[in-house]
Amino acid sequence: MKIVSAEQQYNADKITIEKQQITSLELMERAGGQIFEWLDSRLEGVPVPVHIFCGIGDNGGDGMVVGRLLIEHGYNVVIYVVNYSDKRSDNFLYNYDRIKKVTKNWPIIIKREAHFPKITSEDVVIDAIFGIGLSRSPEGWVKKLITYLNETEAFKLSIDIPSGLFANKALEDEDAVFLANHTLTFQAPKLAFFLPKTAPFVRDFEVLDIGLDSDFLDDLKPLAHLITLFEAKNLYKYRDKYAHKGTFGHALIVGGSYGKIGAAVLASKAAFKIGAGLVTAFVPKCGYNILQTTIPEAMVATDKEDEIITNIVIDFEPTAIGIGMGIGKNKATAEAITKLFKTQNAPMVIDADALNILAENKEVLKLLPKSSILTPHPGELKRLIGAWKDDYEKLEKVKKFSKKNEAVVIIKGAFTTIVYMDNLYINSTGNPGMATGGSGDALTGAITGLLCQGYNILQASLFGVYLHGLAGDNAANVIGYEALMASDIIDNLGKAYMELFTNDMEEPE
Ligand SMILES: NC(=O)C1=CN([C@@H]2O[C@H](COP(=O)(O)OP(=O)(O)OC[C@H]3O[C@@H](n4cnc5c(N)ncnc54)[C@H](O)[C@@H]3O)[C@@H](O)[C@H]2O)[C@@H](O)CC1
Ligand SMILES: Nc1ncnc2c1ncn2[C@@H]1O[C@H](COP(=O)(O)OP(=O)(O)O)[C@@H](O)[C@H]1O
Ligand SMILES: [K+]
Prior knowledge:
The chain is of the alpha/beta class and 509 residues long. The chain folds into two domains: 2-218, Rossmann fold, CATH 3.40.50; 246-500, Ribokinase (UDP-N-acetylmuramoyl-L-alanine:D-glutamate ligase), CATH 3.40.1190.20. It has 20 helices and 18 strands. It has helices at 6-19, 24-43, 58-72, 90-99, 140-151, 199-202, 214-219, 229-235, 261-273, 288-294, 331-343, 352-360, 362-366, 378-385, 391-405, 439-452, 457-483, 486-491, 493-500, 502-505, and strands spanning 2-3, 50-54, 77-82, 108-110, 124-128, 155-159, 182-186, 204-208, 224-227, 250-254, 278-283, 299-302, 320-323, 348-350, 373-374, 408-411, 417-420, 423-427. Strands 1-9-18-17-16-15-14-13-10-11-12 form an eleven-stranded mixed sheet, with helices on both faces. Strands 4-3-2-5-6-7-8 form a seven-stranded parallel sheet, sandwiched between helices. α3 links the parallel β2 and β3 (77-82). α16 runs antiparallel to α17. The longest helix has 27 residues, at 457-483. The chain is elongated, with a radius of gyration of 26 Å. It binds ligand NAX, adenosine-5'-diphosphate and potassium ion. Ligand NAX is lined by residues 13, 24, 27-28, 31, 55, 57-60, 62, 84-85, 89, 130-138, 159-160, 186. Adenosine-5'-diphosphate (ADP) binds next to α16. GO terms for molecular function: ADP-dependent NAD(P)H-hydrate dehydratase activity; ATP binding; kinase activity; metal ion binding; NAD(P)HX epimerase activity. This is Bifunctional NAD(P)H-hydrate repair enzyme.
């Protein structure tokens, strides 16, 4: 699914109006109508008090449409005009006027703090104050209104975007943003919905299809792609009936040190569970028995040292390499990585301490093989590219890094973001239960296992992150967030694959 900029959204509106020969009022009616239907199907006629706060732009116009439709259907609605300016949009004015025809209760004008209404926890608050047209952070009494509404315990629904957030620009004042329980956004999600500083204001969101011109949307280069079930399914490579284990490659997992052999175990298991044909784990000597007993399917090669990796010697040609989990930052280990970079041609997934070694030794970074995949969490990323002033600068810095090194960078976290050259991809699966030791090791193993099966570096990154998150979601559905451990993610990878096609297998009605 495409994530578009505010400018692209305005262009899509404009082109749709031209091509479908409709007025912007008709488009607004469509948009407001969708919000109404969403509400009506949930409220089912129950007249809970609904307070709609409308700004004076088109977002406010949407709010007026929703208000009118709710009133027409017998709901208990109070509409407010958040009158922060006298420059009311035409669409707003027209829909403001139409309220007169359906009720004697004319919208209440709010111009100062004294006008703020009482809201109870039983009420519904709809935020139609600012949409994607916000040009600067709300100030004065409008900011106070937003803070006031945030403090109420009512259910809070934002139309298009929580007021105070910019669709694709850094947040200026986090105290001036509506804190929505749910956001209903038009046609395409906004980038702000996925970035660490702004996503918490959106919480849950749904995209409402308002029928904008599909040719225009298909052709445009979006700000980012959201990876959903649809995209994941398209990535899947079917298995040939006559395939043999050689078809699915040989993964080399280089990980572990004394006390952290489990990292290599998790990555090796994940490589198998995602479908690698063969897996060899390269570990310090102390890991030999552990690997052989925990994963009998894996082959094991060991370093000459007992506790750390100092020289990676293997007697086969790996299809892909996953490296870094639990290896530590010992000088000899850094040297072993340098040598591996110089001698190996297989694509590599570089994680954890291997990333820290890269960050601390710019000479090693220079040797980073082209077409590598780096999987930093935000802490590791900061060490690699330096600090950033906001989420947008971070993404620009990572794009630059990706281009310079021809590498895929996977920024892990909620809404893991995959950066390749100038392109951004945002993952839609995963949950806070996955914030647990070892889940990153499982991801590295999974991506390595996909590379082994012929997925290219971008495909393996996107598909691996999606399946890893989906497996985590499946696990959380059964055991909850708290009990979830990295092994549960790995155990659910098979189910995640199957879920890709669950709907396809259902009998047509
Ligand atoms: N154009 C269309 O056909 C459609 C537009 N839609 C709605 O239109 C919205 C965008 O509408 P607008 O472009 O009118 O913009 P908004 O309604 O987001 O409005 C903000 C208005 O206030 C002004 N403003 C911005 N920041 C301010 C601040 N801090 N203090 C005071 N004033 C400020 C802006 O100049 C703008 O006119 C979308 O988010 C969506 O809800 C939908 O109805 C779908 C169709
Ligand atoms: N709140 C969250 N929502 C979704 N995914 C998460 C969340 N927290 C962590 N994850 C995922 O779990 C993994 C954690 O990786 P990492 O931080 O490297 O952990 P570790 O080093 O313990 O293995 C990443 O894939 C990340 O995207
Ligand atoms: K809004």
